[in-house]
Amino acid sequence: MVAQTRGAGQSSPKKLAFHDKLVGKGLSTDVLQKKMQALHKELADMDQELVDTQSLSAVRKELVNKSILLHKDRGVKALAACCLADLLRLYAPDAPYTQDELADIFSFFFRQLSTGLKGTDAPYYNEYFHLLESLSTVKSVVLVCDLPKAEELMAEVFRSFFNLVKHDLPKKIELFLTDILVALIDESSSLPSDVLLSILEQFTDKHTGADHPAYRLAVSVCNSTADKLQQHVCQYLSTEITSHAKNEDYDEVRNAHDLIKELSRSCPALLANVIPQLEAELATENLQIRLLATQVMGEILSEKNGAEFARKYRPACTVWLHRRQDKVQAVRLAFIEGCKGVLSNLPEMRDQIEDALESKIFDPDEKVRAAVCKLYAQLDYETALHHVNTKQLRLIAGRGLDRKRSVQIEATNALAQLYSVAYPEMTITDQALADYILPLPSSSNSKSTDVDEIAWTDRLLFTTGLLDDTARNSLLSLSGLKLGHPNIFDRYVDACVKHNGGVIDENEENVVKELNDIIKRLAISFLDPVKAVDDLNEFAALNESRLYKLLKTCMDPQTDLKSLVKSSNEFLRRVEQSSSTILPTMTAFLRRSSLRIVNQSSIPTMLRRVQKGLEGNGQADAARSAEQWLTFISKHQPALYKLHIGELAKAIADERYVKLVEISLQALAATAQWDANLAPTEKRTFERIMRYVMESNHRHAKFAARLLTQYKDSEAICTGIVESIADSLVNADADLLAAHTAVLAQVALHAPEAFEVKSDVIMKFLLKQVLMRRDEYSDEMDVDADSEWTEDADMEPLLRAKILALKTCRNRCLAHRNDKEVLEIAKPVLNMFATIIRYAGSFTAEGNDDPKVKARLRLQAAVSFLHLAGVKDLVSEVQSTFVPLTIVIQDPCYQIRMTFLDKAIALLSSAKLNPGFNVIPFLAVHDPEADVISKAKAYVLYAVHSMPKLERLARFEMIFFRLLHLLAHHPDFGTTEESLPDIARYIEFYLDLVASPDNIPLLFYLAMKAKTVRDIESHLYSENLYAMSDLAQHLIKSFASKHSWSVESYPGRVKLPGDIVRPLPNAEAANEIVKTVYLPESSLACLHKGSEAKSKAKAERAEGVERKLPAKRKAPAKTNGNAKRARTKGKRRKADTSDDEPSSSSIEEDEDEENGVVSSSSEDEEDAEEENGEPAKEERLGRGARTRAKARIKKQVKKSRTKAKSPDSDD
């Protein structure tokens, strides 16, 4: 006990003046209270050092009398407690009572406090305050530790005080209670278990928190006695975890770990002995313990004091980091979940966490990859901006292309969420998130219909301006604008209406079949196709007319943004009320079927942004984005313009804004094609359109002409235009000639009768004076002679006129596709196209034309040929040029290859070409550019997986024979050891994409059947075909063996195409051919070795999934043998936003484009290095690539010698 000194300097002991009796009969409560007050006042004023303790003997005995301690009056007991506390102070350090009496006294103290002290307004509050102050300052309470019932008393003290403090008492009282409890713990030789439990209960009580008085008291006590409590806490937790884990009571084990987490937050010093135990748990074989330890460790490190914790317990942190490689998925997921807070709060560990997350983003388990993506979605803007490097963001973006849809969704959500939080503060130039996140405009998830349409559109335009070509095309695709009407979503709703919830009046079988077929096609694109089928069927079974009406409103292109949001919210609310389980599926259905990214409400804002950009108001980026969107809308969804015809007509009136006039004319033309009644009829507007059609701006002229062909009296209007142009062609300058030719191309397609009025004059002029016109060319004339491509902006007017002349020829044929004379009209045109393709862009083999002109002409000829190949009456004529046409996919020029593939895919996707043209994508396998191969592969995989079985059979499986036949005619065909691997790669590529256990017997049967016929052209090609048959059989067997498939006999019979092969003359010839092996054994052996080498390399790469690769050196960019200019970043493709060659199958869209390919980015070319850092071997090139490349290289060498000039580093 600590003695207190008052009144120092007095020499004689002071005796107690109070002599009244406190115990006796006849004492009323009031009298006793007064006596007790007088005694308390005198004792409180006495000094311990100057008191005569003998004078205290009488009151000392009377105060512990039961009549006092058990008095019924609370005031008497409160004053008695104060007097007893004063006596203990005055007698200190020796207590004047026996141990039993002391036990009764302290029990009395604690009872008075717990029952009487309820707050500052409680009766006798001053007396209770005095008692606590005395116990706190004098420390007389430590006498409890020496009593026989010390443990019981201590437990009572702690329970009482934790209950007492809950009454929201003054801060000073909390300090008194803390001092008392700390003194008891410090003086006790051993800590009673009940005391420890009382303390720890304050951290596990769900009703307490960091601001609760009991929690604060426990924290203060623990932090003041941490050295003494450490061992007890560790022992308690160890016992709890071990015993409950042994009994597999993991709920209690979890509670113990929750306690560790709570203590780390408020009393980290208590865990000095616990953390080594937690470290051991991180490596234990017990999964549940390891999982809990991983979770708790992550949460501890995420706290504000995590940095101090990490420095103090570095070994434990290291073991926790190793949990990223745990063999159990759940533990790896727990580790990732813990990384979020560490990433935000621990700069010291940020590099280690980023390395761990980088490895886990490629984890074999899709749930782990998805969890990493989800983690980034939960970061706030500042954390993502300052604490996440751009490499991580790139990797997250890359998971948007993950093989698993769940990962794709989480990655996309993460990027969208990061962009959403970053958008208010983001600028284009200095924010990392703006450069690396694929942003999407905000979709309204709120129940409010108060949508700012202008802000919505501006956000979309800002977003679009941040994207490169690939990302922009993805955003355009996500917009849903390409969905025509009626589409599969419309047909689903109509089928639901017909189904009528299963109550069908007539044609029940057909109605049910139609609904099931539509549902199957829709379900393919959902994350869980099986659930999608069930949910879509359940929605149909609901048969709620209000839901159908809301859905149709959302899908209607004329619905404005506010109505869309309102209808969407009501639709989703009603679906949730009717059947909550189908809500996710119907939410996805709604988003895909409605225009939520761009809407008809966006048109006015976009037109204004284009105008302001042209005015030079600092909105050039928004203007460019608006141009791209408006052009895309014109090509794919002109219905959005229906309510804005007046604004478009007004826009073409101001000729100062050339680009705005062009966009508006294009929009008006597209809208009139969609609905001819929407063509503007106002006199001034019509006069402006007539003026534009005759001017020298070829874009204005083209769209004006297209618009005029949609008027009711279009034939008369167009006839006058054709006659006027025919008379002025001879004297037109180059710009006007290009514009007039653009008009003629439109009229030839949309108003053929008007065109035929002067067709003989026009066609003769275009052929002789435009197409056949030759300008002598030499390398010295071209400052960029190494390039054979010219961009749209750099194209000479005469070249543009030549291209448009080819389009005019093509369009004239297409316009007569259903006429009897189509063959007569088309045959010379097809011959001309074939000549251009055969002579690589020239009309003669010796033509010394500009390579840029030749490249553009052979591209246009090939694309035009594709369009004409879809005309039924021209199929036989096209077949004679089938081989050179398909091999355009192997042209030396990248832009030609990519554009040709785009057009082929577009026409094939819409079934406008016969199935045989599906061989084209497989010829891209040797392309030196990865994006060409990727596009071809993506088309085939999507088509194969989405097509019905019979359609897949006709369009991809039966064409295998045509592919073998084509390869037999390929200029690079050969059976030598050098040539055969290249030819084999085509078949391997086909098998990789198309073969399955179900169709492998058919493919093998088709390969064998190739040796039962002869080529229609010559015996040489027949032998080539037989060699292809042997090669295909060999490769199919190897492929099936590798996949453990059995190649069974095909049970059916197949009729081979009679346009390319004929039957053999007799059975003897057939037997001889079947018995003959047409492939040299040495070539097959070489092929086998190459296959083994590739398998080994693939296995090695698979083993090193998470291994960091050495930095790659950049290889010089090559274009199939000839050097090409570095492509500007973001300019590789303009695809759907391009304005010339079509990206869809529509010939009208084709007319909106003008060679819409641009130089590609050099980024993809710079990674042509092997993993070991050595330069990659140059890709083997296709027929056109090799033959033309060799000639070009020879010419470049010759030129370099004559000019005494060192070769370009890219050669």
From TrEMBL:
SUPFAM superfamilies: ARM repeat
Coiled-coil region list: 29-56
Highest taxon above the source species: Eukaryota
Biased composition range(s): Basic and acidic residues: 1090-1109
Record protein name field: Sister chromatid cohesion protein
Keyword annotations from UniProtKB, A to Z: Cell cycle, Cell division, Coiled coil, Mitosis, Nucleus
GO cellular component: chromatin; nucleus
Gene3D superfamilies reported in the protein's UniProt record: Leucine-rich Repeat Variant
Compartment(s) where it occurs, according to its Swiss-Prot or TrEMBL record: Nucleus
